[in-house]
Design a protein that fits this description.
single chain; 239 residues; alpha/beta; 3-stranded parallel beta sheet; 18% strand
């Protein structure tokens, strides 16, 4: 499942990455979240029989992601995965997600900065280190600690997460919120943690994520944004 908002300028690379998957036995639900730049037409022009485009007018990655997940479930999907329209899943991504969900209910994959956006190697290394630090902080963050949780905190970025369909429904799915209001991926993980301890981070589930927020806001502000929106930019949708 891939939420999409005004990604016409760069979505071709994401579509190429999906077409290049070594395990091609999957359907994709693209959720057009009110794009005004013809993003949906670019997807449709690929003519892939198992690619589906649905529309969600309610603004927000949470609403778009939930619409896509539930569309897939309604069509009979039992294993679900999400990436984003500015990300490049590694060629073995679908295979790794399928393998992981053979034993796990929820998997959070490895998020690596893209190499094609002009970010220097030093900054990419620093960004990966910052993500590891953020996950470590998440384990001690008061909001992620509760006796009702059945396992430790786990970071599962929305652009690289897999979950079994029955667990997605039981957990209530991604909250249908705007990105400014709530980090829907963290909310889903914590909802799952109240139900089961059968989840894990998997380093072999790899997505190359966009660094455009870091380029626009700087590393410090980007980390503050992901820390409960401590940084509040004027424009959230960086394109």
């Amino acid at each position: 499942m891939v939420p999409v908002y005004n990604e016409a300028a760069g979505i071709a690379a994401t579509l190429d990455a999906l077409e290049a998957q070594t395990d091609g036995d999957f359907d994709v639900w693209f959720v057009d979240n009110g794009s005004t730049d013809g993003s949906a037409a670019i997807i449709a022009a690929r003519g892939r029989a198992r690619w589906h485009i649905v529309h969600e007018p309610q603004k927000g990655t949470g609403a778009a992601a939930d619409t896509g997940m539930r569309a897939a479930i309604a069509a009979g999907a039992t294993l679900l995965a999400r990436t984003d329209a500015d990300c490049l899943p590694r060629a073995d991504w679908t295979a790794a997600v399928r393998r992981s969900l053979g034993t796990l209910g929820l998997v959070g994959g490895e998020l690596v900065p893209r190499h094609d956006e002009g970010l220097p190697l030093r900054r990419r290394v620093l960004l990966r280190a910052a993500v590891e630090l953020a996950e470590a902080f998440g384990r001690i963050r008061p909001g992620n600690r509760d006796p009702e949780y059945r396992g430790p905190y786990m970071m599962a970025a929305g652009c690289n997460v897999g979950i079994r369909a029955d667990l997605y429904v039981a957990a209530g799915g991604f909250p249908r919120t705007a990105i400014e209001d709530l980090h829907e991926d963290r909310a889903l993980v914590n909802a799952v943690r109240r139900l089961t301890g059968n989840y894990a981070r998997r380093r072999d589930v790899v997505v190359y994520g966009s660094s455009r927020r870091v380029s626009a806001w700087g590393l410090k502000n980007t980390l503050l944004w992901y820390k409960d929106h401590a940084y509040k930019p004027e424009h959230v949708d960086i394109r």
